[in-house]
Amino acid sequence: MSHKKLWLILSVLFLLEGTLLPWLVPAAWQSKVQVDPHFVLVIVLFIGLYINRHTALVYGLVFGMLHDFIYHSPMLGPVSFGMGLAGYLAGMLQGRIYSSIVISMVVIGLGNLFYDTAIYGLFRLFRVTHTNLEWVFLHQMLPSMLINLLFALAIYVPVRKLFESLPAKQAEEME
């Protein structure tokens, strides 16, 4: 798998996050919870787990900044910071723990929670939002984490086979 394929996959998921997926959330849920699919983040976390942390950092920073620009973030940088750092932290676990589906889902769940908490913390720090953390956690973070974990579970086997089939030389070139 080359850079081009990975860029293409992430670009398609990035476009789907903002265009098609908001329509798939049932109308009854929209008044009670806010579901934000972060499918690019899931792939960035997989990149950190199965390729390396530096590649995950770069993809997280690039697609996070793109998200800041395109999806009208009130500040430039929080999404980029959160996505890049989450991918980097997931990559720090590569080779240190046994990789199984349970461990991967725990890392992706915690990475997603870290990402949402970092963005909330930065928005709260700079007084962009005044919403209570408890409400945000129950009505935004948990539903989003559930959707992202279901997506990660659905693509786990193909993504793992794809990333593990990379020769060591090609994985080093992706840095």
From TrEMBL:
<feature type="transmembrane region" description="Helical">
    <location>
        <begin position="37"/>
        <end position="62"/>
    </location>
</feature>
<dbReference type="GO" id="GO:0008360">
    <property type="term" value="P:regulation of cell shape"/>
</dbReference>
<keyword id="KW-1133">Transmembrane helix</keyword>
<keyword id="KW-0133">Cell shape</keyword>
<feature type="transmembrane region" description="Helical">
    <location>
        <begin position="69"/>
        <end position="91"/>
    </location>
</feature>
<feature type="transmembrane region" description="Helical">
    <location>
        <begin position="97"/>
        <end position="123"/>
    </location>
</feature>
<dbReference type="GO" id="GO:0005886">
    <property type="term" value="C:plasma membrane"/>
</dbReference>
<feature type="transmembrane region" description="Helical">
    <location>
        <begin position="135"/>
        <end position="157"/>
    </location>
</feature>
<keyword id="KW-0812">Transmembrane</keyword>
<protein>
    <submittedName>
        <fullName>Rod shape-determining protein MreD</fullName>
    </submittedName>
</protein>
<keyword id="KW-0472">Membrane</keyword>
<dbReference type="Pfam" id="PF04093">
    <property type="entry name" value="MreD"/>
</dbReference>
<dbReference type="InterPro" id="IPR007227">
    <property type="entry name" value="Cell_shape_determining_MreD"/>
</dbReference>
<keyword id="KW-1003">Cell membrane</keyword>
<comment type="similarity">
    <text>Belongs to the MreD family.</text>
</comment>
